[in-house]
Amino acid sequence: MTTELLAPLDLAFWHLESADHPMHLGALAVFTAAPGTAGGAGLLELLAARAAAIPRLRMRVRDVWLPVGGAAWAADKDFDVRRHVRRLILPEGEFAAQAARLAGELMERPLERGIPPWEMYVLTPRRPVVERAGTRTGARAGTRAGARAGKPAGAGGEPFAVLVKLHHALADGMRAVAIGAGIFDQIADERAAGVRRVRPVPPRSWLPGPWQVAGLARGRIEELGRAVGIGASVVRASRLDPRGMPALTAGSSGTRRLATAVLDLEDVQRIRRAAGGTANDVLLATVAGALRRWMLERDERLPAAPPRALVPVSRRRPGSPPGSGNKLSAYLLALPVAEADPRVRLALVRRGMHRNKCDGPSRGAGAVAVLADQLPPLAHRLAAPLAGSAARMLFDILVTSVPLPRSTLSLGGCPLREVYPMAPLTRGQSLAVALTTYGGRVHVGLVADGKAVPDLDRLARGMTDELDELIRATL
Questions:
Q1: Are 222 and 353 within one domain?
Q2: Are 463 and 289 in contact (CB under 8 A)?
Q3: Can you give the pTM of this predicted structure?
Q4: Are residues 225 and 159 in the same domain?
Q5: How far is it, in rounded angstroms, from Cα 439 to Cα 423?
Q6: 427: buried, middle or exposed (CB in 10 Å: 19+, 13-18, 0-12)?
Q7: pLDDT tens digits, one per residue of 20-53
Q8: Counting beta carbons within 10 angstroms of the beta carbon of residue 114, is it exposed (0 to 12), middle (13 to 18) or buried (19 or more)?
Q9: 182 with 226, same domain?
Q10: Which of the ends of the chain has fewer CB neighbours closer than 10 A, N or C?
């Protein structure tokens, strides 16, 4: 792969990062070890070999002279996969809780910027564990001695996990899935057989050719007009005194906590069929209801103004290849946490998302990411700290859905049973909710500032409780 410039939004994510706000995406994938399969050391070898075979994971970011302030992806001539793939052995205890604790801790740590910006960890138990039936949540604990040396038993049926961290400059949600899927047996086997799932995307040239200049000129006036409209919407939507839910407005501590929940997809679809709208509307209403429950359990006053959720949406055309670079916009949605009736909450969410979709992903304050395409590289480098601090004035919580392949996946013959996506926290944000569907279930990954939200597991339980409430109210 030859050198290519970072796309404008990639460059923005690269410069938005700080020590307290690392800008990487994550996923915690939980597998069941099949009898006779390789143990922890064998899994580490397999994971390293497959990750090293993904061209994108051999690229690092380096500054360039032109354009001024720009950066480019370049092959890392000293690439060593052992710097990116590690094995950690969990302390004794319930596997799900220990894995979530350590995953939250590892999500705190920014990726090293001088090498390809990604990491993967194989998390194995110290010895066979028996999980409690019905366990669905886990939260990060404060111990940093969680991963210790030792020999796992490696018995069949024993769980293990893989934690993946990819810098947001490297991939948006769809691209992250395309990259991460390369570690699974099904995709790796296709690659080994020479089967290409999509056509490769040619790298961007440093200097545009005549046809590129003509194409840019044709759409420039329309793009600038759209940018002006988005900018005006952002100004109107910004809150100079963004007060709301105390936990969501707390100062940053730089710590991270992870909690997980599992929702039944058929329950989500039953509610959708009864109430109308989309499955995503149901999930957003579930988030709103869970926040309400959580606040009431904390004896907090419900906010007078509803908290705003930023709901990312892909700008990639359906059926198009993932390509390189982030292609994102977003919708802004008021979460009706003050509304007591779950049916009304769902109706309000449906109405808000319908308005957003009628406007489209390239209009409104939520489409602020589209403005990145209109800024020169130097502006991203200089204005990133200001832009990051201003996010708090626009939204309170990130709620994102990450697509996964519908096929059953495995690693080294070990079936994937759960996968929890994780989103980064920008400056001023204490909570991000990511959802993905796999195996007939919706897996929810909640990432929070560890000090601002020490009871994140209660919010995770609220997700399942709220979905149950929606079922009772709508069916």
A1: yes
A2: no
A3: 0.83
A4: no
A5: 21
A6: middle
A7: 889 999 999 999 987 766 667 888 999 999 999 9
A8: exposed
A9: no
A10: C
Q: What is the pLDDT of residue 82?
A: 93
Q: Is the residue at 198 inside a domain?
A: no
- pLDDT tens readout for residues 144-159: 333 433 333 344 578 9
Residue 398 backbone dihedrals phi, psi, to 5 degrees: -100, 130
pLDDT tens column, 281-296: 999 999 999 999 999 9
CA dist 197 and 195 (Å) reads 6
The reply to whether 238 and 330 lie within a common domain is: yes
Task: Tell the residue number behind the tokens 């001024």, with chain if given.
Answer: 68
Token pair for 385: 């700290």
Say how many residues make up the chain.
475
- Domains of the chain: total: 2
What does residue 243 show for φ and ψ, rounded to 5 degrees?
-100, 145
Tokens 């070890």: give the residue.
33
Angstrom distance (rounded) from CA 27 to CA 71: 26
Q: Are 186 and 223 members of one domain?
A: no
Examine the domain organization and report whether 327 and 247 are in the same domain.
yes
Nearest by Cα to 337 from 409, 411, 397:
397
List Cα–Cα distances, 455 to 9, 22, 104, 452, 460, in angstroms.
33, 22, 14, 9, 9
- Cβ atoms of 230 and 414 closer than 8 Å: no
410, part of any domain: no
CB 16 within 8 A of CB 375: no
Q: Looking at 8-17, 167-176, 463-472, which range is the least confident one?
A: 167-176
Domain that holds residue 225: 212-399+445-474
Same domain flag for 310 and 282: yes
CA distance 200 to 321: 8
Closest to 171 in 3D by CA, of 19, 372, 25, 329:
25
pLDDT in tens, 89-114: 998 889 999 999 999 999 999 999 99
